[in-house]
């Protein structure tokens, strides 16, 4: 019998990608979540028949700088062209932004002569609070449909991707900033070095940069593997962030730990040569905590993949028991993270009949990959499910308060992360 031999390069992929920050070859797996469709593309009923493109959701950790990252599989234009996410829909997130605005105006003494620039300003969800206080702003947002909403509510917004080239152009036009901010954008930047270089260029000599991003330490500790998706290219520790800023002539002088997005950091930076702001002990405290968790060596990253598998088994076990017992399960929310969770666990309409979302842009559409339909929230009171699984678990308290009425028919809440918990 003839045997077939395959060329070696088919059996063993040798296409090592370079680290987005330091350029070292990526070989060490952090977690491999298999193949998955883009999580922010919600297909319509017609599009369900056209098939979907799947991309690897394989996350690496760079053994040199410890930046945790995905390879880049899809062009940013394709991801952000008609981005359906509108920040303004979560009450607690808006409150968080308003508080931030008040704190910054006070801490930096911002007024009518100041300038605040936000990169990836979405629908003006945050800058609107600076506008209300009479502080001049500029938003930079790549998704035209989202930027339009911001402009309509009085937040000047430039439709563009951000990088060193745009920053140079803006500075040449006299547009620099006392406060440059980037909330939940750093993870989504394919060319990290070019982006941080742009932030440096845009910042006035005594200006302050603030960056908010989910904290890798909490992602690992709290098992938040569903926050890994194709739109998030990188996952940051304070340790690695400080190195990245330093490489671009910036210095982290303070950091706050925030409860948002399952545990985030807000890092404050200024130019390396600026000594207006004393370096706060918080910076070293967070770095020391990361070192204690082992994030300064490859070994510290190993346990995560095991933990993720255990969560999959536990969630499937709960849903299978519910299904066998004739219980109905509906979802609440259709955040990007729900696509990773449900797709990786192999959960379709056989186990979760439907989900609901407050955003009219998602209603009538389907979750990518699993094709679970997304309805208006009123569907829950119409169908009275036995369990409501809260997919944006970071908003669980807010959602459980809103949906207290499910108790009337004995309904219970299920929160899947960090571990399956029934309320
Ligand atoms: Zn690296």
- The residue ranges in which pLDDT falls below 50 over 5 or more consecutive positions are 6-13
Identify the bound ligands: zinc ion
Name the beta content range. Answer: 15-25%
Structural class of the helix and strand makeup? Answer: alpha/beta
List the total number of helices. 14
What does this structure look like?
With 423 residues, the chain is an alpha/beta fold. It is 32% helix and 21% strand. It contains 14 helices and 17 strands. The strands form three sheets. It has a seven-stranded mixed β-sheet, with helices on both faces. It has a six-stranded mixed β-sheet with strand order 14-13-12-15-16-17. α6 runs parallel beside α7. The longest helix is centred in the last third of the chain and has 22 residues. It starts with 7 loop residues before the first helix and ends with a strand. 44% of the residues are buried. The site of zinc ion has 8 residues, from loops.
Short description:
With 423 residues, the chain is α/β, with parallel strands linked by helices. It has helices spanning 8-11, 76-80, 91-108, 127-132, 144-152, 164-172, 192-202, 216-221, 238-247, 281-292, 303-324, 336-345, 378-383, 396-402; strands at residues 28-37, 54-61, 68-70, 116-119, 137-141, 157-159, 177-183, 203-214, 234-235, 250-258, 264-271, 329-332, 355-356, 374-375, 387-390, 412-415, 421-422. It is globular and about 65 Å long.
